[in-house]
Each structure stands twice: as C-alpha cells, then as structure tokens.
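== Folding the chain ==

***
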Amino acid sequence: MSSEKRKLIEPEQIKMVVALMLVAVIAALLLGLTDMVTRAPIAEAKKAALHRALGQVLPAHANDPLEGVISIKPVGSSEPKQFYPARDAQGEITGMAWEAIAPDGYSGTIHILMGVLPDGSLHAIRITDHRETPGLGDGILHNSGWLNSFAGRTLDNVRWRVKKDGGEFDQFTGATITPRAVVKAVKKGLELFQNNRIALLSSKEKGSTDKSETKPAKGDKQ
C-alpha cells in the first residue's frame, strides 16, 4: 500500500518542482527584461541630475563639464577621482567640481558635490545623496543659508569645525553629527584639491592644442 502511495505522490512532486522552475525562469526573464528596458532611462536621469547639480556648484562656463572629465588618482587611493572642469570660451579653467564623501553621517554616507574656484576657495556645495533623519539632519539639503555659508571658504580662512566643537559652522538643533560630518568631508575635499591643484588646473581641454608660440630651433627657416 505504501509503495502505491509513493507512486501516486512522486508525479505530483515532479509537477510541483517543474512548476516552481518555470516560475523562477519566468521571473528571471522578466527581471532581466525590466533591467534592459530601464537601464538607459535611469542612466540618463542620473546624468541629467548630475548636470543640474554641476550648474549649481560651478561658476558660469562655456563648456559641458560632463564632456571633459579629468581623472586623477590621489596619493593613497586605489581608485581614480573624477573632476568636472568649468571652462571659459578660451578653454581656461574657471572652476572645478567633484564629489566628496562623508562616511560618518548620523544615518549613513552623505554624498557632497563641491565646486571650487582656481584659487582654492569654495564656490558652492550641494548634497546629492543622504539618509539623514527628516526634520533634523536633512537640513544639509534644505537649509540654503547653511549651504551658502560655505561659499568663499578656504582651508585657511575658517576653523573647519561646527560651533559646538569650537569652529564657525552652525549645527542643527538636535542634530550635530550630520553637519559635523559634512564640514569634515568638505575640508578633506579642499585638501584633495590643494594637493592636486597644479595637475588639475594645467589639464588641457579635450581636442585642444597648445597655442603658445615656440621659437624655431637653431638653423630652422622662419
């Protein structure tokens, strides 16, 4: 009797396994198709968002900063860093933007886009991604006065700490960790620019040539 029951059960089990496999295959196909369909629009949306943010942190420019990215590998880093240059009509750099990371936010990592002028002073910063508490730490995104307080700051003309720590930057009521993390990250970003300033500012625009005149070598015809 038991053997007959097993014979009756086994085909049902096989059908169940086959059905589950079909469901898994169909789900995988659907996920793959969804990724293929949405990948390009998502990438374009991210590019557009970055383009808008660059327009907020860089001075007026005649180029597209996304088309002239400069990659430099900072000392001690295993990955190159991307810098977005602002150039005037003559191709001269008027500003530089890049992303700074604050890993020690209250609720996680904070991504900061910072724009700096050639002399090393901050033009503007914007928060591009964060997980801070709404109504408290998210003041780094919505408090325009606080964001604007970074403009004109250099490594030397301000104490790079929040007021609670003896510095000059405001903290938010009930949320000191978040602004402290941003201030610290922006200072490190300025140090990164200072350490690579010559290389960054001397980089040529893609497709440009050195227009400086050179004296002909001895014996060359003029």
